[in-house]
Amino acid sequence: MLLDSSLMLRALAVDDEPPSLEELLYLLQADPRVKSVEGASDATEALRRINRALECGPDGEDAIDVIFLDIQMPGLDGLDMARLLAGLAKPPLVVFVTAHEGFAVQAFDLKAVDYVLKPVRRERLAEAVRRAAELKEAAPLIPVHEPDPDHIPVELGGVTRFVAVEDITHVEAQGDYARLHTEQGSHLVRIPLSTLEERWRSRGFVRIHRRHLVALGHISELRLDAGTVSVLVGPVELQVSRRHARELRELLMRRTAS
């Protein structure tokens, strides 16, 4: 199936290690959702390229949709660079590609689309590309309002559908967006997870993790394993953070008792 070129990604890969950069460029060039990709060996070179993209505008030949960004680099590191980008009116999407697990919380606080660990696996990078491509496609989504409290509008390929809130099993944060999961599939909406948490609290949705909101009625199992708590929602197992574990157990016990 031919992809609409307007929905394909124009990418920039930034890594100070030549072998890593070459591999990343090779994998991105092989992905059919990537229209073009360039490489930069440090933040200075990358910022020059980004400035050129800003000068040409979002529809220009030099535009950049997404940056695949290493974290530990000499001079300005990847997190600092992402903070600079966040100050732009329309910043490019950012996917961190790093050998270090310890920066994930900071990365997602900076609205990262994804956090890919090295050595980079083709399948894992493809998932990051998919998320970035969907966010680009979702850019003109419906504004944040919900005239019908029982349904939420989602847009796919120019067609607006109305998803019943009761069919949503869980919600996953993706920067300023949220992915609504149902048994039939998932939908991306431009609404922060915190907004949905407040809006749907009275409908039985509870926060179990900084990135997940779950419908209590769709939880089939609560699992405890060596101090780790998780829940089973359909076929999906989701981790419960320590700060939310006690509240979740109390809510489930109350629900069972009633």
Automatic annotation (TrEMBL):
SUPFAM superfamilies: CheY-like. InterPro entries: CheY-like_superfamily, LytR-like, LytTR_DNA-bd_dom, Sig_transdc_resp-reg_receiver. Transmembrane segments: none annotated. Residues 10-133 form the Response regulatory domain. Keywords: DNA-binding, Phosphoprotein. The modification 4-aspartylphosphate is found at D70. One of its GO terms (molecular function) is DNA binding. Residues 152-254 form the HTH LytTR-type domain. Gene3D superfamilies: 3.40.50.2300, LytTr DNA-binding domain. It comes from the Bacteria. This is DNA-binding response regulator. It comes from Streptomyces flaveus. The lineage of its organism: Bacteria, Bacillati, Actinomycetota, Actinomycetes, Kitasatosporales.
